[in-house]
């Protein structure tokens, strides 16, 4: 495997901080668009809704447009690729042959896809782990490819994805009257709107979750080309960043991290602000859908940028940790959630199923963006507290434990590769 780094220092803080913090954004985006959308809101129906002209809802919509929607997915995709890069380097140091390393990585991300499939069907039809796992398996084939071809491939895929959403965004902006309607509401964007109109029980029963989950689970492999265009380049960038030690040597890569952070801020301001303003009616509300599509296209550029921001901000803390220092308890708690991000992500679905859905307690249904954002913050805080408790007990997250056990076996990875004896 080319371009291996020789060693990894003490645990890198920024990926865990990024995952832990971004789970708040994922909760906020999912609450507003999937768990408790207000599809018939007069304003911001794509981003949680403004109910009765609420100023709080309008503020929440602006926050969501800038910092939540299409922010968590690209960040996690970048770090997923980073994780594959770290694993490939670890296998290289353990003297794994290329074929064995590919097989092990494909196995690990195959189990992630399986977890996502179960999550999609039985808990949340908006699951992304299934797609992450499928693309992770494909990336296993690329671990011996050099950095330059990988980065060129990432640029081409990003360009194709951007062209697709630019075309959609421009079409919706210029032909908003002809292309608007209930089918393009928040529910419709997630693939549920058409079903909900004909089959009301889709939103009102757990059987509806199973129905939609099964449909989207079957559809995900067929949408793989689009997922590859959207998620694939971010995973390639993260993979190369891990091989080059970008997050372990912030000083050397400071300029590139600052550029990435600047690009992300540019998208948040230049795309997120107009999107939010259209959502709350300051700009023509007919522009919301077109700008939402542009955010889908440009939003993927925020993934590496958010990671870069957190890496730069965490540099003094990383230095303190490397020198044997400790971190404040709140930061340890967020880091603990980042270490257990899969369990935290699925916990969000469990709590929403119990407290938010129409077929359960229905908290937040029809309430608008401010309420859904507040509920998301409470759910996130619960996950932070539980993750911190597990950290104090020295326990992994339950899904992380199961995933590692299935991927590496009871004994874990050997320090040096041990080939399996041939069967006689």
Automatic annotation (TrEMBL):
Name the keywords, alphabetized.
Answer: Membrane, Transmembrane, Transmembrane helix
Record Pfam families: DUF418
Superkingdom of the source species: Bacteria
Q: Which organism is it from?
A: Corynebacterium kalinowskii
Q: Where is the DUF418 domain?
A: 241-409
**Which lineage ranks, top first, belong to the organism behind this chain?**
Bacteria, Bacillati, Actinomycetota, Actinomycetes, Mycobacteriales
Q: What is this protein called?
A: DUF418 domain-containing protein
Chain segments annotated as transmembrane: 21-38, 72-92, 104-124, 130-145, 152-175, 210-242, 263-283, 289-314, 345-361, 373-394
